[in-house]
Amino acid sequence: MPDPPVVATIGRCFNRVVDLDELRTLLARHARSDATTAIDGVLVSKVEQATAPSPAMSGTVLALIAQGAKRIALGDRVYEYRAGQYLVASVDLPITGHYTEAGPERPALGFGLTLHPAAIAELLLEADPGDLPPAGGGAPSGMAVSDAPGELVDAVIRLLRLLDRPRDMTVLAPMIKREILWRLIAGEQGAVVRHLGLADSSLTHIARAVRWIREHYPQSFRVEDLARLCGMSLSAFYRNFHAVTAMSPIQFQKQIRLQEARLLLATHPGDVTGIGYRVGYDSPSQFSREYRRRFGVPPSQDAAHLRGSTLHPAPTLA
Prior knowledge:
Layout: H1 4-30, E1 42-47, E2 54-57, E3 61-67, E4 69-74, E5 77-82, E6 85-89, E7 94-101, E8 108-114, H2 117-126, E9 143-147, H3 150-161, H4 166-185, H5 190-197, H6 202-215, H7 223-229, H8 234-245, H9 249-267, H10 272-278, H11 284-295, H12 299-306
Antiparallel strand pairs: 1-8, 2-7, 3-6, 3-8, 4-5, 4-7, 6-9
């Protein structure tokens, strides 16, 4: 007869399989083309074929995969996660992502929850300090992947069940979302999530710089001025910015410029030169060279391909 610890392990594995089966059923039933649901901040994704790598913004999000697999490139880092694993994006970052395992008979299925710093800060204020993970020293990476514990999967399932019970949604959904946040804070990536809710954390300061670059991406800037905006020395700013984004500030700006250029080309395919100037390039040749390096084809050729198509940023599950 198996030892009690072996029996317990088998029981946990069985429960995990059952939980993922129910999670897959709920996600498949409630998936919509725009990924949104009736619960604010909750996203559901269903993808029926492996996709080519495409640029997007990560958002600040928890993304849990129930079926399939996804690969994401952030700067010089690559993250892969699959069924039973979750990814946390604590800063809205320019990424290149694609599903590597998906098909009509077995689509990729994922759950997403938008992370709001204010909601995390509220939980941190209510928690006993002894129950919180250490915040850590410098800024953590803006993305992290872990295996999803059973308690987190269970809370996600209970939240998705509310989509079939609209009468209970208004009262219970906020409570379960708070539970999910707490599972993240108390889990393996708790330090990353905790930084998101701390107003004076290194991550929060870098997020301020990220927002500034996104809002002023066509403008040239001095890195010294961004460091001053964040209240950091130049060396500390460089170090923390790269830790969070896997890029330098100038590389980050370039990613934003080129992604915005591609969106503009989808609606104005005949104005390649004008779009290059609009996103901040002074030289059409430099714009064409960097665009080709990023997307594999020059902007004029990509514009012809995009003509008639629509490239609107959709809710993403990172």
